[in-house]
Amino acid sequence: MKKKLSFLAIVGLIVTMLGSVVGVSAQGPGEGGIIFDYDLSDPTDFNPLISGDVTSSNVWSKMYPNVFGVDSATGAYAPGYKDSLAVSWEFDETGTVLTVKLREDAFWTDGVQITSKDFIWMLEALRSGLLDTQRGGETWETLDDGTPGSGLLVDAVAIDDFTVELTFSRADCNSLNEIFATVVPSHIFEEDFGDDLAAMNDDPLYDPGVYFGSFVAPDFVPGDRVSMIANQDYIDAELGYVSPSEWVTLNIPDQDVAVERFRAGELTYMGIPATYQSEFEDDPNFQTYRFPRRGYVFYAFNHANPDNPQAAYDEEGNYIEQEPHPVLGDKLVRQAIVMSVDMDAIIENNLDGNAVRVGVGTIPSSWDYDPDQLYPFDPVAAAEMLDEAGWVMGDGDYRVCQGCAYAAIDPDYEGTEMALMLNDSTGGTEQSKLMVEFIAQSMRDIGINAEVQELDWGSAFLPELTGQTFDMAILAWSLGLPLDPDSTSIFSREVDVPGSGFNFGSFHNAEIEQLYKDARDPAKTNNCSLEGRLPYYQRANEIIFDELPYMFMYANLSMSAAHSWVEGWDPVVFSTTWNADSWTAIAPVE
Amino acid sequence: MAKFIARRLIQSIPVFFGITLLSYLIMVLAPGDPVSIMTFDPTMSQEERAALADRLGVNDPWPVQYFRWLVGNDWMVVDEVTWYQVEMEDGATGWLSEKQMAYHEETGDPVLLASRQPYRDEPKENAEITGRIGRNAEFTVITETVEDVKGDSRGILRGDFGKSFTHHRNPLDLIGERIGASIELNIAVILVGLAIGLPVGVLAAILRGQAFDQGSRVLAVLGDAIPIFWLAHMVLLIFGAPNLDWLPMGGRCDHIRGGCGPVYTRLEYLILPTAVSALGVISGWSRYIRASMLEAISSDYIRTAQAKGLTARQVWFTHGLRNALIPVATFLGPTIVSLVSGSVIIETIFSWPGWGRLTLQAVSAQDYPLIMASVVIGAVLTIIGYLISDILYAVFDPRIRLS
């Protein structure tokens, strides 16, 4: 008997030891453990109709479907894609009327079918102008209260339960991109709010209790977490059921702390900051995935005189010729600055190799990307270009104007030292600070007196940037999905408005504006085919490469990591969580 | 006593308004503006940004904003809108506002800005929509009227703190959700600080010049000198070692749905943030108590007590400590404020969902209503705290007269 007990004890010990190294596979619905991730702040809204921040959208995008699906692997629109409602869509011959067919197998969790009515109700609610949101203006050309929007939609009609007709003010290849299309259960919203849509503004955490998506019913503990439970009625589940029982998003306001907590096993997966990537890559306790980030980092050049910021147009719509920036107004100077900076060294030394150079405002995963569109690092040639531009070495360490372009406007400028202020936001990491200092030193090396000033984002950096009183300012743009090369919103003269416009460097080029317009015109692009649009963007990129509205720097290589015990983790380039409903996230028992 | 309290309360009124006025001034005169922060998105049009700024009222001069924040604007006309009663082709009538109209460049006739515009049964924004007409539909203007539009703010003097720009909710609700966590953490910190700092200070005074005194002084200097953010990160690094799993590294409770349970069920969450925060408190209090004790024991009444033949224990603890603690009463005012205002660094590093972190985020986002709600509550608590402090001081020390 004693021998038998010993044997059982050994078996038990072996089972325990196995348990300590092997995670438990999912057995069925809700048995795949709990997914823990984090966000830097609290969500502010659970209602997509009034929500505007990314943290909130991470919550409601799990609960409600979008009409138009975007393929996580390609970043392009994909009819019938997971979590979306449209199975097909087609423009008429004018390019202004879009007919959308919705799937017929989608139901809300209360059993009510999702139909055209839900889509139309949501669009009409946005158009009412009663909601505290920018989404109405982004979608519609004009709101019900007369406020002009930036969208192109002028009408939306349900043809039948599963067919919707959308009318746009003009034929535009990007008209779909402009529409907000997350659908909510209109029968519940109508019941709860009736005609008093404005009441939604006072109830941002409103939860109808009826959903479609994989994780639903948010339980919010302010400042601490949002927990969502698995919806086993979710019809798009990869395995036919939702494997994790819950998805908990912790509020961790410090990224470094999040890394520590991830390492300690308190988070299931996370996007790894650049400075920690090498560490995780070689660690067998983690599985990692690298992908180019959907965005790029750049130093904006101010092309206009920062002492006299002006809009591109006056109130009557007349074009105002901008007084050039004394230093950066000259293209040769901008090109010389770009050539003076060893961007490969920055990527290698400051970013641990976790970035890809970009030469214009496009990234490797975009269809207009040209890997050869890069300036060489050539400080000797850069110095010669400055000589040619009329900036010659003075008695000291820096150059002075001797026949520079601005002296033709203001003869008193002759003899002025070549000096530039490089703005940096205080929120940056230590690596980014070193990088900015490296750029400044590179400029000093060719005779430009470059100084760095660190400014608080909200109270100093932004006012200087949008007020157009800066010389150079470092920033990054994130690009939305689906990826589109159109940069009208940052490079057109219309948005050169001190205080609010996004062409804060006053980059003016009429040809580019026309190219962007043509690239969105179905008649000129073989009905919006990529092949038809590409030549316009290629030409626009050539101009941008030559004119340099920005010093384009790099696109980060992002890294996502999950613990080795997470099963089913299969990140793709545009989403690391697209199949989270099939994960098993059970930490091994120690 | 009642007279003293009444007088202090009356004196508090201008102090309160002074605090709010200065705070508001500093806030709105700081460079930058909330709309720029909220709308740093190139896809937004100029008009949408302008509409948002109008809606938030941040374009008005600061005295107007402050006055509105204080007394509201629901009693005054802030805008006028012209409404047109129109007759449609099918004979239906309805009201359209001037905002929905433009004027034809050639004929000067009113035309609609967009299609399917709603018309209402009365010339009011919130009136019932009775139908819609298309952009190119024909209609005739029957009559027009001008509607006065009043503001919708009641002002803080009538309890309306507005709506947070970022959270879109009443700032008092937001603070209410967080204040409990701050109080909880800071009570723990003060209790630990007192439980350790008080005896260490007393012992250091009793053993003046001896090893314990010297050691406690070194530790106190270290405790004061070590930056709290560094210490907090070190603690996380140590306790975050893979598979250690001794203590939770952040948050306030387990992820059980429905919020956090009673504090005694989740004490482990308090340990790390309390330990790190309490270090500074222990250092400060131990030195303060030590100094206070030494001052007390050099007093005449202590010498008298010793001359009367009391034991050392009686001299130190009955007479010395009791009198040494009187100045501690002055700490109570600021302590009450610190109880709720929270510790921003600790709350951030340990993901503690307190009010301090909320206020910091509000300042970063230039969320005026939330910042000002925090200022008002902070000001009220400070005033009350110091009033209590003064009263207690007089109660503890009869030599001090409230008059």
Low-confidence runs of at least 5 consecutive residues of chain A? 1-24
The number of helices of chain A is 15
Mean of residue pLDDT values of chain A = 90
The count of DSSP E runs of length 2 or more, i.e. the number of strands of chain B, is 7
Shape of chain A: globular
How many domains of chain A, as an integer? 3
CATH architecture type of the largest domain in chain A: Roll
> How far is the N terminus from the C terminus of chain A?
30 Å
Rounded to an integer in angstroms, the radius of gyration calculated over CA atoms of chain A is: 27 Å
Largest sheet of chain B: 3 strands, antiparallel
Provide the low-confidence segments of chain B as ranges: none
Question: What do we call the CATH topology of the largest domain in chain A?
Answer: Dipeptide-binding Protein, domain 3
Key features?
A: D-Maltodextrin-Binding Protein, domain 2, Dipeptide-binding Protein, domain 1, Dipeptide-binding Protein, domain 3, 3 domains, 18 strands, disordered N terminus, B: mainly alpha, two-stranded antiparallel ribbon, elongated
Task: Give a nutshell description of this structure.
With 590 residues, chain A is an alpha+beta fold. Chain A has 15 helices and 18 strands. Chain A is globular, with a radius of gyration of 27 Å.
